[in-house]
Amino acid sequence: MSISRALLLSLMFSFALTTFAETHNYAFTVQEQAANRLCKNHRIVNVNGQFPGPTLDVQNGDSVAVKVTNASPYNLTIHWHGLRQLRNPWADGPEFVTQCPIRPGGSYTYKFTIQDQEGTLWWHAHSRWLRATVYGALVIRPKSGSSYPFPTPKVEFPVILGEWWDRKVISVLRQALFSGAAPNISDAITINGQPGDLFRCSSQGTTKLTVNKGDTVLLRVINAALNQQLFFSVANHKLTVVATDAIYTKQFTTNVIMVGPGQTTDVLLTADQQPGRYYMAARAYATAQNAPFDNTTATAILEYKSATTQPILPQLPFYNDTNTVTAFSNQIKSPGKVAVPTKIDENLFFTMGFGFFNCTPGPRCQGPNNTRFGASMNNVSFVLPNRVSLLQAYTQKIPNVYTPDFPPVPPLQFDYTGNVPRGLWQPVKGTKLYKLKFGSSVQIILQDTSIFSTEDHPVHLHGYHFYIVGQGFGNFNPSRDTANFNLVDPPQRNTIDVPVGGWAAIRFVADNPGVWLMHCHIDTHLAWGFAMAFIVENGVGESETLLPPPSDLPKC
User: Fold this and answer.
1) How far apart are CA 187 and CA 114, in angstroms?
2) Rounded to the nearest 10 degrees, how much is the dihedral formed by the CA atoms of 371, 458, 442, 516?
3) SS3 breakdown of the chain: % helix, strand, coil, rounded to 5?
4) Whether residue 3 has pLDDT greater than 90
5) How are beta strands 371-377 and 457-461 bridged, if at all?
6) Is residue 155 a contact partner of residue 267, using CB atoms and an 8 Å limit?
7) Contacts by residues 411-416 (CB-CB < 8 Å, ≥ 24 positions apart)
8) How many H helices and E strands in the chain?
9) 29-36 long-range contacts, Cβ below 8 Å, gap at least 24?
10) What are the tens digits of pLDDT across the range 162-180?
């Protein structure tokens, strides 16, 4: 009797799972299209004629298939930022890392299942700078029968922060890569593709959200900007942070949030003010010394129904207000005690930041003091292959594509955030990967350097999220800093903003086989070589082994 009852329960359970998990089919056509911003017409690349692109709205446990047809003139891939893609790096998307690009006229269907993730993520192009306009929200709702760990909001609204150039972004990138100098900064920050009515020719298109007094609003804030950390605030309204990078947090209330490129932050807002119109505003948090940045302010309008007053601006922090950023990030914690890896198998130390390549003075040598700008991790400036992807080279054992000798520690120790000798300013170009055994517990210290300038760097790890067990300023000191690690309720993220002139310590278990890119999510720095990749080996049995490649994987 008990056996048949157990069998019946298990059948009911599997039936419940199959009943509620859905398969969503989407079609993305990537194309060039006319767009008008800041009184100018030009052509941008977008998806399905929408900018930002379509929102994928799914539930935890669902399967998703997105057929991407490339009708643009550029090679391209799509990355599903923050999705674990368990055993399935073939759907991850970074160009020449997990796949060769979808050529103009070609197509590829990304197939993946959402496994134990809910909240706000996003998708974007992962080929050169195309993500400047090729991006959209990925909203994962709780499974049927589950709910948010907070009262269900009356209104949900994606707030996608971006950057707008008055020129084709591929031309801006090409010019920078040709000259070796820093690229031109953007002409506007945007909210949902619009700069807002502080700009010329923009008030018609300004993003608006209409609410009733008393409404609770869930703002899903995504920083899709190419190169800029951003402050975000809503005039006269408090924001309660409830999740970051699609992981719930201890709730706390703040006037302003800072979101690094690649990061998402979910905030609750109550429409409890005098009915009126209030600006939601975003502007730069900029930390590199003497480096130009886009200092404009993007606005959208939160308007109470039938209000007609002039909108009020929030007070945003000053551009380099690191104290506000530190106070904000120190409040982000897991909701309760979490299982942080404590027995570390791989203790890695990665320096990161800028570098310069010496060159012959001329049109291709226009960085500071007759150099070309570069960037590196552990003094290796990462070079992507261009004839086969790293994942294919690894699984098919193709020689001469990469070497598995990425250094676990810097080749030379120095005063990382002090006065760095000029002899250490030139990195070495290479395609170096680091191998991890399946199931190994990994700690990485990410250490900023002051070559050219310290800067707050948003570092993203594909295929994983990780615990941020510590961060601080200056050089990491193991004997002093390890003792202060938070091993109780550290936050989990997929993108860490490493403090300017400081360090961050992250931990994760290497439980997802494949080739996974780790890089700065400031695309200028990625183009200069600020990246590396991990090979996570297969474990034991099918559940710990890479899936085979799909039959329509783009040909190299």
Assistant:
1) 36
2) -80
3) 15, 40, 50
4) no
5) unpaired
6) no
7) 411/378, 411/379, 412/379, 415/475, 416/351, 416/447, 416/448, 416/449, 416/450, 416/475
8) 6, 32
9) 29/69, 29/71, 30/68, 30/69, 30/70, 30/71, 30/72, 30/76, 30/125, 30/134, 31/71, 31/72, 32/72, 32/73, 36/201
10) 999 999 999 999 999 999 9
Phi-psi region of 425 (alpha: psi -120 to 50; beta: other; left: phi over 0): alpha
- DSSP structure string for 130-156: GGGT-EEEEEEEPPTT---SSPPPSEE
Q: What are phi and psi of 328, to 5 degrees?
A: -65, -50
Give the pLDDT mean for 541-554.
98
pLDDT in tens, 225-241: 999 999 999 999 999 99
Q: CB–CB of 130/113 below 8 Å?
A: no
Task: Tell me which residue has tokens 């086969």.
Answer: 388
* Residues 164, 38 contacting (CB under 8 angstroms): yes
Sign of the alpha-carbon torsion through 468, 282, 289, 421: positive
Contact 386, 378 (CB under 8 A): no
What gap in Å lies between CA 318 and CA 231, rounded to an integer? 9
Task: For 9-27, give one letter per residue: b (16+ CB within 10 A) or e.
Answer: eeeeeeeeeeeebeeeebe
What element of type H or E holds 12?
Answer: helix 2-20
Q: Give dist(CA 284, CA 293) in Å, integer.
A: 8
40-70: buried (b, 16+ CB within 10 Å) or exposed (e) per residue?
Answer: eeeebbbbeeebbbbbbebbbbbebebebbb
- What does the radius of gyration of the chain's CA atoms come to, in whole angstroms? 23
Amino acid (1-letter code) at residue 198: L
For residue range 304-359, what is the model confidence (pLDDT) as tens digits? 999 999 999 999 999 999 999 999 999 999 999 999 999 999 999 999 999 999 99
What is the spatial order of strands in the sheet that 441-448 belongs to?
428-430, 380-382, 371-377, 346-358, 441-448, 502-509, 466-473, 492-493
Lookup: tokens for 419:
């006065």
Q: What is the pLDDT of residue 20?
A: 65
Domains annotated for the chain, with CATH where assigned, are 19-147 (2.60.40.420), 150-333 (2.60.40.420), 346-544 (2.60.40.420)
Query: Is the four-CA dihedral 86, 88, 91, 92 of positive or negative sign?
Result: positive
